[in-house]
């Protein structure tokens, strides 16, 4: 395993949590292994480890881009990760609202619905933290 893969796996676990990464690894097949290797090394090991932006900013950008592109299957996971890292529900709402102004109301509407579902699943503590 090269250094970028090792760093990428460490950051991936820090950002998404061990449980999520362990599930992804457990589902890896020979067919999906090249993609898992790619995202671990290139996305997590080369992009998320750069010094130019702090992790908090990267999380907010990620939520904005996922919202803008309508990548609903990824939004809940990244909202949970952001909350776990101390970004408040209010701040997440601001990111989604701001994204709606530039990427469109339907995209933000869907992301708010997903965000509300995550907050409801996590209980009142997550919503109150904002």
From TrEMBL:
One of its GO terms (molecular function) is peroxiredoxin activity. Signal peptide: none annotated. Residues 35-115 form the Carboxymuconolactone decarboxylase-like domain. Gene3D superfamilies: AhpD-like. Pfam families: CMD. Transmembrane segments: none annotated. It comes from the Bacteria. InterPro entries: 4CMD/NDH-1_regulator (IPR052512), AhpD-like (IPR029032), CMD-like (IPR003779), Decarb_PcaC (IPR012788). PANTHER family: 4-CARBOXYMUCONOLACTONE DECARBOXYLASE FAMILY PROTEIN, CARBOXYMUCONOLACTONE DECARBOXYLASE-LIKE DOMAIN-CONTAINING PROTEIN. This is 4-carboxymuconolactone decarboxylase. It comes from Nocardia terpenica.
């Amino acid at each position: 395993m090269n250094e970028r893969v090792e760093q990428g796996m460490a950051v991936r676990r820090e950002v998404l949590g061990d449980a999520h990464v362990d599930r992804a690894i457990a589902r890896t097949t020979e067919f999906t292994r090249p993609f898992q290797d790619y995202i671990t090394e290139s996305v997590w090991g080369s992009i998320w480890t750069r010094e130019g932006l702090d992790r908090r900013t990267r999380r907010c950008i990620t939520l904005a881009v996922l919202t803008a592109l309508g990548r609903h299957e990824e939004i809940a996971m990244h909202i949970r990760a952001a909350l776990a890292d101390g970004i408040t529900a209010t701040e997440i709402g601001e990111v989604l609202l701001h994204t709606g102004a530039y990427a469109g109301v339907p995209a933000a509407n869907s992301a708010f619905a997903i965000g509300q579902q995550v907050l409801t699943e996590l209980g009142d503590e997550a919503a109150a933290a904002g």
